[in-house]
Every structure is written in C-alpha cells, then in structure tokens.
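Progress report, Aim 2. The chain analyzed during this reporting quarter is listed below.
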Amino acid sequence: MKSRKIFLASVLMTGFATTPFTAAQTEAPEWITFSSKLDSMKEAGVGSVVYPHKIHEALYQCDDCHPKIFVDKIGANDINMQKNIDGMYCGSSGCHNSAEAFPLYLCEKCHSGKEKTR
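Predicted structure tokens for the chain:
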C-alpha cells in the first residue's frame, strides 16, 4: 500500500517537475526539480527549487502531505513563495514555518538551481 502511495505521489509531483518519472518506475525520484516559475525565480535572484523527495519520504508518511497540503492532481499546485509565506504548501503548519525544519527565509536551502539526479 505504501509503494502505491509513493507511486501516486510521484506521478502527481511530475506535473510541475522536470525530473522524468514514468509508470514503469516503482519508486519516487530522489530529487525533483521545480522550475515552472523559473522567470520569476531569476528575477528574484534565486535558482530553481531542488526538492529532496527521498528525505521527506524517510521522515513522513505520504498522507502527511498528500492530499492535505498538495492537491492530488497534476498541475493543480500553484506553488510560489507568497503562498509558502502565507502558510500553504512548504510553509504549512509543521513544515518550513516551524521549529521542526529550517525556515523559509534560508533561500539557498531549496533554491540551489543545481539539478540533481537519482
């Protein structure tokens, strides 16, 4: 059941990620690069977001985030910094607005701009 949730979560994430993921794969990618808002990121002086899915997967259950924080539909999560700051997505309660994780203002922790692979 967990592998099915991992697969579904991974498929949903590919709607706004550049890391290729196909139905033939049985596990989520280790890293997911978010670059759909690259123009505004460049304007802000930061690179694309490189999200460590495997790290989050080791710390949390899939249903901690899906669908509570992220809508289970490809392309349905219009993530941006203002929404994170307002307590949505990565800025949700218990996530990057709490003592449990680094704060949102440490830009380089997410906006490395360096694509990573499995």
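The CA atoms of residues 25 and 84 lie 30 Å apart. The domain at 2-109 is CATH 3.90.10.10 (Cytochrome C3). These observations will guide the mutagenesis work planned for the next reporting period.
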